[in-house]
Amino acid sequence: MGMFKVRVAEVLEETSNIKSFRLKRADGAPFGPYPAGAHIDIVGPTAVLRQYSLCSPPDDPDDYVVAVKLEAASRGGSAALHDQVEVGHQLEISTPRNLLSVAPGADQHVLVAAGIGVTPMISIAYHLHRIDEEFELHYFARSREEAAFCDLLKDRSGFGDRVFFHFGLARDEQPAVLGSVLAPLTSSSHVYTCGPQGFMERVKEIASAVIAEDNVHIEHFQAGEATDTDSDTPFEVELDDEVYEVPVGKSIVQVLADNGIEVDTSCKEGICGTCIMGVLGGQPDHRDQCMSNSEKKANDQIAACVSRAKSPRLTLELF
Length: 319
Ligand code: FES
What we know:
By secondary structure, this protein is an alpha/beta fold.
């Protein structure tokens, strides 16, 4: 995974606990465009690496913008960025990766965000607006004060008429509102959602009544429920004609690293997709949240940081 240095060109307080950071390449070169919905890894001042979605226009070659919410339980990631990073500081970031691609051939795209989950939806909205696709962006938050980028979205994005705010709804009011937001879907519509796990599951459940599950695209910011590991068993991994045993309590990535084979990783929680390897044989036990259901059913890829095997041996290849 390529990492490079950037300079912080601007820091803005978007809300009382969300700051945006405008980044430029430290060497002065342009970034070039990035795929809408992509995220980057940022290594903060305490060397903690976290993923953040880009929310600047994807075709802006010069700037990347990320928004960082100060998490109450921050283990050094968001807190260090909030407290220690100022204009002029340097950070290290990865090249953008995309797990939330815009689907081709949709009759409409409905973007449904909650809270800080709006960030990947902003770059997708910029992109859809630029290529003149039919879309709406629905933004749920506890209040306008707690919602970042409201003025940008309504007044300066160029697509303010496609943005709809849903602020201050009680939890039990959400399903009805989501139902009306998603009511105009057809079988060729696509829905993209990012926010808390329960919110995304409600969106998926309501949308899946009309569109195929694979037309609902979910961006996970955090690992979901922990998998029950009590019934884990050892298995073998074959790579380049060598066989390694993966014991209970160790991941494929760890076992390969123990044997001098480095697999690129980032989140190590099954959410970013960096560690995905090819599967040439055997049946994976998918435990990630970064691949779609159809990708998992194909059984030809595996997120090697968390997933295990249902068969005694997996034959893998490095991408
Ligand atoms: S390192 Fe992120 S999914 Fe494996």
